[in-house]
Structure formats: structure tokens, C-alpha cells
């Protein structure tokens, strides 16, 4: 069965404050990129993450992320930032943010 996966990441904040939105559809990727993306989702345990991660206690110029993954009719959204984001989630965010808008 082919998975139907769509990732939407909205990044805001940072020093300059220019927002960026990336939408990645699994079907539009090469088979290698599809495998990397699915592996990153699994390793991050994305669907087990809470809606919000803790806010940083220090710092003002960090990026904030609103991440939504839709997978075979199931959807989950989280809000995180580049300071308190889990180590397991970073590869998924970095990979998706490196993709072009689709």
C-alpha cells in the first residue's frame, strides 16, 4: 500500500523575521527521498509528540515552527522551536525545509 503523506512546515521568528512555508508531498519525491522522509517521520515519533514543546527560557531570535503531517487520513500538528525541539525531530525538519515548495 502506498502511503499518502503531506508535510507542512511554517517557520517564523529568527533575527530577520522572514516567514517561510514549505509543503512536501511524498508522491512528488524520488523513491530515495521518500524513504528518507518516511524514516525521519518514524524516528521522530512525530505522531506521539505533544502539541507544544516548551518555550526557551532565554533567547529572542529563535525560529518557531508549526509542523503538520497528514498521513493516510491521520493528521497531527505540533508547535516547536529550534532551541527546545527534540533531537529526533531535527532531521525531519531539516530535510523538509531543504525541499522546494510543492
Walk me through the topology:
Blueprint: E1 5-13, E2 20-25, H1 31-44, E3 63-71, E4 74-81, H2 90-97
Antiparallel strand pairs: 1-2, 1-3, 3-4
Helix pairs in contact: 1-2
Describe the protein in words.
The chain has 102 residues and is of the alpha+beta class. It contains 2 helices and 4 strands; from the N terminus they run ββαββα. Helices cover 22% and strands 31% of the residues. The chain has a 4-stranded antiparallel beta sheet with strand order 2-1-3-4, with helices on one face. The chain is globular.
Can you give keywords for this protein?
alpha+beta; 22% helix; single chain; Subtilisin Inhibitor; 102 residues; 2 helices
How much helix is in the residues?
10-25%
Question: Briefly, what CATH class?
Answer: Alpha Beta
Q: How many strand units?
A: 4
Structural class: alpha+beta
Concise summary:
The chain has helices at 31-44, 90-97; strands at residues 5-13, 20-25, 63-71, 74-81. The chain has 102 residues and is of the alpha+beta class. Strands 2-1-3-4 form a 4-stranded antiparallel sheet, with helices on one face.
Amino acid at each position: 500500500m502506498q502511503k499518502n503523506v503531506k508535510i507542512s512546515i511554517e517557520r517564523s521568528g529568527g533575527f530577520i523575521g522572514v516567514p517561510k512555508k514549505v509543503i512536501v508531498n511524498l508522491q512528488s519525491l524520488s523513491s530515495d527521498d521518500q524513504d528518507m522522509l518516511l524514516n525521519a517521520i518514524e524516528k521522530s515519533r512525530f505522531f506521539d509528540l505533544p502539541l507544544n514543546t516548551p518555550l526557551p527560557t532565554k533567547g529572542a531570535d529563535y525560529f518557531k515552527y508549526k509542523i503538520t503531517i497528514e498521513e493516510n487520513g491521520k493528521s497531527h500538528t505540533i508547535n516547536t522551536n529550534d532551541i527546545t525541539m527534540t533531537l529526533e525531530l531535527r532531521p525531519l525538519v531539516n530535510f523538509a525545509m531543504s525541499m522546494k515548495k510543492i
